[in-house]
Each structure stands twice: as structure tokens, then as C-alpha cells.
């Protein structure tokens, strides 16, 4: 019998998605450019389900029932285009190509148009959860036509993670919507990790706690509002000892964070949309700084820090303050992330249901967290919420946290420990709530040096002051 769905690209993510589909009772066609991967999958896991391996792409396409459903799981960028180009001539009208990699949503929009013109469906789908998620239930964010989603839905919702019986998979919207939302997920992932790293760094420097003691702090935090996968694995990494030295694992790891690009894309896209995503931007910049060996080497031990690098704080109070700072800063990062999704949805006519995005991130993905339920509830209360931060629940959460948050940012500055995530989040919060911003002065400056005009608080219209003349005001 023919296969119900196929996977081409059997590196670890593709292989685990194929196994997940097979374990859930679907007959899965397999293909990989080098056949060894296909063979080893069948050899090692063939007993898990019904696999239909092929040695070449025409055979793979031939082994699928129509309309064909093909998941492409190869590297983003050119490798994805290469596979699509090879695949398309072999397909028939109505067939569905799913790109489950971390593609840039602009590429997905381009590919969707190209395939649509050929009578094919292209589904750019975010898949989160790493290797483990792909195998046991990821969070799935598919974009594309409603018809293609209808055809894929039974399979995708079956293999996805579930929370309270609900699948962590929903049709996000047309063309690039799914990959945009996955990109934002990764941007938030960057911000979350940066904030966690800052909390760790501050507690370690200010209180002198050991990694093992810090693991206990995070383990404790994971029983409250901060409960999430990333906090859980932070405790795991911090409690790990290095097999070679027997010391803390975290102390033998080179302190240069790498990145594959999705965080950077998020910030670039948000800049284009005009949405401040300062939490994510600081997270990307902090990774860049960590990897900038040339300048770090030139400055370390050369640029002076504060004379008094110890803060006079009570241990339990400071731990609690940092917990609040982390939670409040995290809320800001999510608020900014959802603003970016809303802006893109408006820009590209995606009609994304923001509450549903919070729902599908509750399980399976890297940023899965207890408080995503709260985000869903906030959008249930008001689908047009201008910012998550003004929802009653979040407003309350931030106001409970803010004294701590301010103390932590002040302490970080005093002791000279970098906390770009915490401080950017706090500045955003203060900027957002300000009744009047110094942007008025910026407008004045722009008008003086470039006649860029300004608007007034008391009258409609656009104005200019004759700065080099008699300083009278003209209206344009
Ligand atoms: C996921 C992850 C996944 C990947 C990140 C890592 O949702 O499963 O986000 O997509 O682990 O892209 O990104 P960096 O290598 O850029 O940190």
C-alpha cells in the first residue's frame, strides 16, 4: 500500500518526526539524499511502525498516496530550495509540500507563491521542541492554505504535544504566518535564556552562590509562576558536574554563545515592522558580545569596574528580588513578542489568533511554560488587548514585581554585572507607561536641523519653526 505521508531529509529532526508519525499509526515514506540514513532508520526503528523507504526522489514520490503530503526537513535556505526544485516537477496538482525547518518567513512567502502558481500547496510549518519534541510531541505552527491544513490536520494534531487534551498545533494563517510565529517563538526563547543567564550571573556574583546552590534556587522557582521547561533545564545544567575535572560543568564551558540566526531574524523583522522587541534585541546582542573575543580580550582587566563590587543585600531578599525581576522582564519579552506577531499579522493579512498561539506554546516547544495559560486567558478576555502588560492579571503581576525589579537593575549597575535584558525590559516598561516622553525634544531637534516638522499637543496640523529666521511658526 502507498504511504500516507513522506519525510525527505532524515537528519535528527526529520528522522524523529518520521518515527513520531509511524508510532502514531501513519504509513510513512522515507527518503534521504544519502541512503545510509534511510537504511539506519529502518534498521534501528523499523519495528516502530510502517515505513516505506525509497532510494531516490522519484521512487519516494511514487510511493505516496495522492494528494501527496511531503515533509521536507533539510537545512533552511539554499538546501531547502534545492529539494523543492527537485521535488516540484515530480508532483501533481493538489500535492502538499511541508517545510518543517526553521525557514525565514519571507522565503516561505516566496515559495508558497511559486508553488501555488503550479497548482501545489506549500505549507511553511514551525516545529519546536528539539529532537525530543520531534519524537514525542512537538509544538507545531503550520502556515499555508486552509485546504492544505485540513488535509494535514489529522496527522499533525495527532503527533503534536497535547496539554489538557488539546493539541499544541493550530493553523496559524496563510503563507509565511507559521514560520513567522516560529521565528518569534525563537526570539522569545533567546530573551528567556538571556534573562535566566542574567539571574544566574547576578545571584552568583552578588551572593557568591555555587552552581549547585543555584540549581536549587532554580528548582525552587520552577514550582511557582516561573515554572517552565527552560527553568527546569537550567537547574539541570547548573547541577551537572564536569566528567573531566569533577567541578561544575558550567565552569568548563566556553562563555561564547552561538546562534543559528532565528533570533537575529526576529529582531530584524521587528525593526522593519517598527515594533520594539528590546528584550530579544539585547539577547541577540549579548550573544554577539560574548563571541567578540577580540574586544573582550582587549577590555578584560583593562577597563575598570566599580570600586565596590559587592552589594549589601540579604540573601533571601535578593533571591526573591531576582525572581521578580526575571518574571517581570519575561512578561515584557512576551508582550513585545505578541506585539510583533500582531503587527505582522496586520501587515500581511494573516489574521492570527494570538490566544491560540499562546495555547500551542503551552506544550512541546522550548518556551513551554505555565504562564502561557495566563496569556491565553488575557486574549480571551480581550482579543484586541493593546499590550499584554495592560491586561489586569499582568498589570498586577508587574506591579507586584516592580520594586524588586528596580532594586535588581540598580544592584546590577552598582556591582558592575551586565544585565541588559533586565534593564531593557524595565526601561520599556517605564517608557510604555510614561505620560510624556522626551520624544518631544527629538522632534524639536529634527525640526531645527532638518525642517522635519512637528505636531502640537494643542492643535491639529503639521508645524515648522523658522529656526534661522524670526522663529515664527508656520503650518504646512
Ligand atoms: C526549537 C528550537 C530550535 C533550535 C533553535 C536554536 O524550537 O526547537 O528553537 O529551533 O534549537 O533554533 O537556535 P540557536 O542555535 O540560534 O540558539
Automatic annotation (TrEMBL):
<keyword id="KW-0311">Gluconate utilization</keyword>
<feature type="active site" description="Proton donor">
    <location>
        <position position="189"/>
    </location>
</feature>
<protein>
    <recommendedName>
        <fullName>6-phosphogluconate dehydrogenase, decarboxylating</fullName>
        <ecNumber>1.1.1.44</ecNumber>
    </recommendedName>
</protein>
<dbReference type="GO" id="GO:0006098">
    <property type="term" value="P:pentose-phosphate shunt"/>
</dbReference>
<keyword id="KW-0570">Pentose shunt</keyword>
<dbReference type="InterPro" id="IPR006113">
    <property type="entry name" value="6PGDH_Gnd/GntZ"/>
</dbReference>
<dbReference type="InterPro" id="IPR036291">
    <property type="entry name" value="NAD(P)-bd_dom_sf"/>
</dbReference>
<dbReference type="GO" id="GO:0050661">
    <property type="term" value="F:NADP binding"/>
</dbReference>
<feature type="binding site">
    <location>
        <begin position="74"/>
        <end position="76"/>
    </location>
    <ligand>
        <name>NADP(+)</name>
    </ligand>
</feature>
<feature type="domain" description="6-phosphogluconate dehydrogenase C-terminal">
    <location>
        <begin position="178"/>
        <end position="468"/>
    </location>
</feature>
<comment type="pathway">
    <text>Carbohydrate degradation; pentose phosphate pathway; D-ribulose 5-phosphate from D-glucose 6-phosphate (oxidative stage): step 3/3.</text>
</comment>
<feature type="binding site">
    <location>
        <begin position="9"/>
        <end position="14"/>
    </location>
    <ligand>
        <name>NADP(+)</name>
    </ligand>
</feature>
<dbReference type="InterPro" id="IPR006114">
    <property type="entry name" value="6PGDH_C"/>
</dbReference>
<feature type="binding site" description="in other chain">
    <location>
        <position position="102"/>
    </location>
    <ligand>
        <name>substrate</name>
    </ligand>
</feature>
<dbReference type="InterPro" id="IPR006184">
    <property type="entry name" value="6PGdom_BS"/>
</dbReference>
<dbReference type="Pfam" id="PF03446">
    <property type="entry name" value="NAD_binding_2"/>
</dbReference>
<feature type="binding site">
    <location>
        <position position="102"/>
    </location>
    <ligand>
        <name>NADP(+)</name>
    </ligand>
</feature>
<comment type="similarity">
    <text>Belongs to the 6-phosphogluconate dehydrogenase family.</text>
</comment>
<feature type="binding site" description="in other chain">
    <location>
        <position position="260"/>
    </location>
    <ligand>
        <name>substrate</name>
    </ligand>
</feature>
<feature type="binding site">
    <location>
        <begin position="32"/>
        <end position="34"/>
    </location>
    <ligand>
        <name>NADP(+)</name>
    </ligand>
</feature>
<feature type="binding site" description="in other chain">
    <location>
        <begin position="128"/>
        <end position="130"/>
    </location>
    <ligand>
        <name>substrate</name>
    </ligand>
</feature>
<dbReference type="InterPro" id="IPR006183">
    <property type="entry name" value="Pgluconate_DH"/>
</dbReference>
<dbReference type="GO" id="GO:0019521">
    <property type="term" value="P:D-gluconate metabolic process"/>
</dbReference>
<comment type="subunit">
    <text>Homodimer.</text>
</comment>
<feature type="binding site" description="in other chain">
    <location>
        <position position="190"/>
    </location>
    <ligand>
        <name>substrate</name>
    </ligand>
</feature>
<feature type="binding site" description="in other chain">
    <location>
        <begin position="185"/>
        <end position="186"/>
    </location>
    <ligand>
        <name>substrate</name>
    </ligand>
</feature>
<keyword id="KW-0560">Oxidoreductase</keyword>
<keyword id="KW-0521">NADP</keyword>
<dbReference type="GO" id="GO:0004616">
    <property type="term" value="F:phosphogluconate dehydrogenase (decarboxylating) activity"/>
</dbReference>
<feature type="active site" description="Proton acceptor">
    <location>
        <position position="182"/>
    </location>
</feature>
<dbReference type="Pfam" id="PF00393">
    <property type="entry name" value="6PGD"/>
</dbReference>
<feature type="binding site">
    <location>
        <position position="452"/>
    </location>
    <ligand>
        <name>substrate</name>
    </ligand>
</feature>
<comment type="function">
    <text>Catalyzes the oxidative decarboxylation of 6-phosphogluconate to ribulose 5-phosphate and CO(2), with concomitant reduction of NADP to NADPH.</text>
</comment>
<dbReference type="InterPro" id="IPR013328">
    <property type="entry name" value="6PGD_dom2"/>
</dbReference>
<feature type="binding site">
    <location>
        <position position="446"/>
    </location>
    <ligand>
        <name>substrate</name>
    </ligand>
</feature>
<dbReference type="InterPro" id="IPR006115">
    <property type="entry name" value="6PGDH_NADP-bd"/>
</dbReference>
<feature type="binding site" description="in other chain">
    <location>
        <position position="287"/>
    </location>
    <ligand>
        <name>substrate</name>
    </ligand>
</feature>
<dbReference type="InterPro" id="IPR008927">
    <property type="entry name" value="6-PGluconate_DH-like_C_sf"/>
</dbReference>
Amino acid at each position: 500500500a502507498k504511504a500516507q505521508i513522506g519525510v525527505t531529509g532524515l537528519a535528527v529532526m526529520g528522522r524523529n518526526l518520521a518515527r513520531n508519525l509511524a508510532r502514531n499509526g501513519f504509513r510513512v515514506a522515507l527518503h534521504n539524499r544519502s541512503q545510509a540514513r534511510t537504511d539506519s532508520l529502518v534498521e534501528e526503528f523499523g519495528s516502530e511502525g510502517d515505513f516505506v523507504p525509497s532510494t531516490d526522489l522519484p521512487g519516494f514520490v511514487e510511493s505516496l498516496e495522492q494528494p501527496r503530503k511531503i515533509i521536507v526537513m533539510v537545512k533552511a535556505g539554499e538546501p531547502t530550495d534545492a529539494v523543492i526544485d527537485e521535488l516540484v516537477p515530480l508532483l501533481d496538482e493538489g500535492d502538499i509540500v511541508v517545510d518543517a525547518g526553521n525557514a525565514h518567513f519571507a522565503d516561505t512567502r516566496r515559495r508558497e507563491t511559486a508553488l501555488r502558481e503550479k497548482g501545489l500547496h506549500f505549507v511553511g510549518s514551525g516545529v519546536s521542541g528539539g529532537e525530543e519534541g520531534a519524537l514525542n510531541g512537538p509544538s507545531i505552527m503550520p502556515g499555508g492554505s486552509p485546504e492544505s491544513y485540513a488535509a494535514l490536520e489529522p496527522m499533525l494534531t495527532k503527533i503534536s504535544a497535547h496539554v489538557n487534551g488539546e493539541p499544541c498545533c493550530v493553523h496559524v494563517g496563510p503563507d509565511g504566518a507559521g514560520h513567522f510565529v516560529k521565528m518569534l517563538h525563537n526570539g522569545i526563547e533567546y530573551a528567556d535564556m538571556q534573562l535566566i543567564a542574567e539571574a544566574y550571573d547576578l545571584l552568583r556574583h552578588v551572593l557568591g552562590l555555587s552552581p549547585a546552590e543555584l540549581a536549587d534556587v532554580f528548582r525552587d522557582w520552577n514550582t511557582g509562576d516561573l515554572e517552565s521547561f527552560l527553568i527546569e533545564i537550567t537547574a539541570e545544567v547548573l547541577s551537572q558536574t564536569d566528567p573531566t575535572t569533577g567541578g561544575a560543568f558550567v565552569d568548563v564551558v566556553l562563555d561564547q554563545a552561538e546562534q543559528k540566526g532565528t533570533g537575529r531574524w526576529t529582531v530584524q523583522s521587528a525593526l522593519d515592522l517598527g515594533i520594539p522587541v528590546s528584550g530579544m534585541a539585547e539577547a541577540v546582542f549579548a550573544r554577539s558580545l560574548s563571541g567578540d573575543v577580540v574586544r573582550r580580550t582587549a577590555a578584560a582587566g583593562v577597563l575598570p569596574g566599580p570600586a565596590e563590587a559587592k552589594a549589601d543585600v540579604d540573601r533571601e531578599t535578593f533571591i526573591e528580588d531576582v525572581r521578580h525581576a526575571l518574571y517581570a522582564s519575561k512578561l515584557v519579552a512576551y508582550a513585545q513578542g505578541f506585539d510583533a506577531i500582531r503587527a505582522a499579522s496586520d501587515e500581511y493579512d494573516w489574521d492570527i489568533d494570538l490566544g491560540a498561539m499562546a495555547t500551542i506554546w503551552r506544550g512541546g516547544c522550548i518556551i513551554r511554560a505555565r504562564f502561557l495559560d495566563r496569556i491565553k486567558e488575557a486574549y480571551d478576555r480581550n482579543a484586541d488587548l493593546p499590550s499584554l502588560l495592560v491586561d489586569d492579571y499582568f498589570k498586577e503581576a508587574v506591579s507586584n514585581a516592580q520594586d524588586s525589579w528596580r532594586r535588581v537593575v540598580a544592584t546590577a549597575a552598582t556591582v558592575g554585572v551586565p544585565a541588559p535584558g533586565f534593564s531593557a525590559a524595565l526601561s520599556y516598561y517605564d517608557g510604555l507607561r510614561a505620560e510624556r516622553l522626551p520624544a518631544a525634544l527629538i522632534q524639536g531637534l529634527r525640526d531645527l536641523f532638518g525642517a522635519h516638522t512637528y505636531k502640537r499637543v494643542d492643535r491639529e496640523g503639521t508645524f515648522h519653526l523658522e529656526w534661522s529666521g524670526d522663529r515664527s511658526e508656520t503650518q504646512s
